[in-house]
Amino acid sequence: xxxxxxxxxxxxxxxxxxxxxxxxxxxxxxxxxxxxxxxxxxxxxxxxxxxxxxxxxxxxxxxxxxxxxxxxxxxxxxxxxxxxxxxxxxxxxxxxxxxxxxxxxxxxxxxxxxxxxxxxxxxxxxxxxxxxxxxxxxxxxxxxxxxxxxxxxxxxxxxxxxxxxxxxxxxxxxxxxxxxxxxxxxxxxxxxxxxxxxxxxxxxxxxxxxxxxxxxxxxxxxxxxxxxxxxxxxxxxxxxxxxxxxxxxxxxxxxxxxxxxxxxxxxxxxxxxxxxxxxxxxxxxxxxxxxxxxxxxxxxxxxxxxxxxxxxxxxxxxxxxxxxxxxxxxxxxxxxxxxxxxxxxxxxxxxxxxxxxxxxxxxxxxxxxxxxxxxxxxxxxxxxxxxxxxxxxxxxxxxxxxxxxxxxxxxxxxxxxxxxxxxxxxxxxxxxxxxxxxxxxxxxxxxxxxxxxxxxxxxxxxxxxxxxxxxxxxxxxxxxx
Length: 481
Known about the structure:
The chain is an all-alpha fold. The chain folds into 2 domains: 1-238, no CATH class; 279-481, no CATH class.
């Protein structure tokens, strides 16, 4: 909860800066501009997933395991620093030389060839940034990690918005490149405070140590590639079927949802993954850790989702403009699906913590296949709202998939406390969803506010049982009185 509070605060600040940035993008560039940003970043993400070898995840595990041994830490960190340069340069050169092809396949013409050449540098910058974040997260230096993220997002905001204002769509590429430079600068600055010197690596040591990291990372990279490729194909399909504006609406909707939910996911992942990796050899401790995390995750995220369902139309106008209100139905369904995504996310980390990269890969491959099929069918039948429905169905299936695989392989099971919390909060969410879709305003708001208050009260009671929140709040009040 301390890690969640710390990085929840970071993500809250990220939300505020995103509101400002996205509002400017929506007003200055419109749906088409958001669509261009989405297609550019999705394509870069696709190349990154092919070339980064999943080091951002696999290396955290290696650093966490080595954290108690100073010599082992120096060796592991030195290997990570060398690998991120190799993989980053690979991604940069691949993007640069494939720029004409990427422009043609993404936009249907070669007008964006120079744009792809320019943003190719971000593949190297992003991978170098990943190397710094791996060190901070693996060594559990969460305060430095938080400061690096805050500094990067604030400076990036104050540089990108003027570019959009001055150059319009022409400012998209400079904004992406400059933001990548600034993000790397601050992560490098704070990672250097840990003072882990890079040592000279003899070839046999580098080869033996890096192979294990790359083997797991390669499977994670393939998994990431599959996920990003599925998203990429969907955006291409939407663009070909409904036009670039529809891509903008889709990208805006899911960016909006992910911005809020990431406040919880990012905050918890920062501490949860290394902590689960530390106890991964103990079946009982693993089960206990996953259950604790699952309960906390649902208790924290449920009121956010219910509040989102209630005030989504206001949020759309605040973040974008009234032109984007067409995504309201999609976001309602997506919010319900987030309950299942949260549960599947918590369980899915057990495959990474145990180093079962093969299981993780096949799980991602299978889920990506049925999710892209569900998305295509949903969009064909019901447009943007169909994408929200397919999101909910897809993550319900992924929740079942992760649960049964974890039960079969690792004898995992949820405790009765989780089922109770999950069912109660999902019922509150569904009641709010049905109310907003079937009851006229303003009565729908009053009814959903009741459900929101019930959800918050229930979460507070359950969190207080686990963490003594009342005592913590009283201590804080007395401290600052």
